[in-house]
């Protein structure tokens, strides 16, 4: 009887509903292998994160090899850091732009944005914040339009949010604190 009661309780308990709403939690800790060279979000100033990075369990294992950022179709997609465009074209019907980041080792860190209609071409040098394309209305794996932002070093996938310095990840207004020992203006 007790087993039946416990089973019924477990089956009838409310289940939290997962929805594609924005995540508000930044990565737990930046990846030490990733220098915080990012100076801009790929879209917007602090876009809603629809799905975070989930490291793959192996080369072909499950996981999410990037971060999905909510963005309407036509939104400009910007380079997060300075680099050279290593690819701008279509892969499996999706527009893709990849940028090898400057001064990030050998092999360099490579960021990828998709689905994106490229406004740059292979070999172009880009600065942080410079547009590399626009969000395409189709081709995304999200339930709404989004940009999948990925990061790799060689064959290893990394969390792209680790590129951003902590001050760029924080939400909320800036606050000025009083400066001790300085008289108030009259």
From TrEMBL:
InterPro entries: Cell_wall_metabolism_enzyme, Dup_hybrid_motif, M23ase_b-sheet_dom. Signal peptide: none annotated. CDD domains: M23_peptidase. Gene3D superfamilies: Glucose Permease (Domain IIA) (2.70.70.10). SUPFAM superfamilies: Duplicated hybrid motif. One of its GO terms (molecular function) is metalloendopeptidase activity. Keywords: Signal. Transmembrane segments: none annotated. It comes from the Bacteria. This is Peptidase M23. It comes from Streptomyces caeruleatus. The lineage of its organism: Bacteria, Bacillati, Actinomycetota, Actinomycetes, Kitasatosporales.
């Amino acid at each position: 009887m007790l087993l039946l009661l416990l089973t019924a309780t477990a089956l009838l308990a409310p289940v939290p509903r997962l929805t594609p709403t924005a995540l508000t939690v930044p990565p737990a800790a930046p990846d030490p292998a990733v220098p915080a060279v990012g100076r801009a979000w790929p879209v917007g100033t602090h876009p809603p994160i629809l799905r975070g990075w989930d490291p793959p369990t192996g080369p072909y294992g499950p996981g999410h090899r990037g971060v999905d950022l909510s963005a309407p179709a036509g939104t400009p997609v910007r380079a997060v850091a300075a680099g050279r465009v290593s690819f701008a074209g279509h892969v499996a019907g999706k527009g893709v732009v990849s940028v090898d980041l400057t001064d990030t080792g050998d092999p360099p860190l490579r960021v990828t944005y998709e689905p994106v209609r490229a406004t740059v071409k292979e070999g172009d040098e880009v600065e942080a914040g410079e547009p590399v394309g626009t969000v395409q209305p189709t081709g995304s794996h999200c339930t709404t339009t989004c940009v999948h932002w990925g990061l790799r070093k060689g064959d290893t996938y990394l969390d792209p949010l680790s590129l951003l310095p902590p001050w760029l990840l924080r939400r909320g207004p800036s606050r000025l604190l009083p400066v001790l020992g300085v008289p108030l203006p009259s």
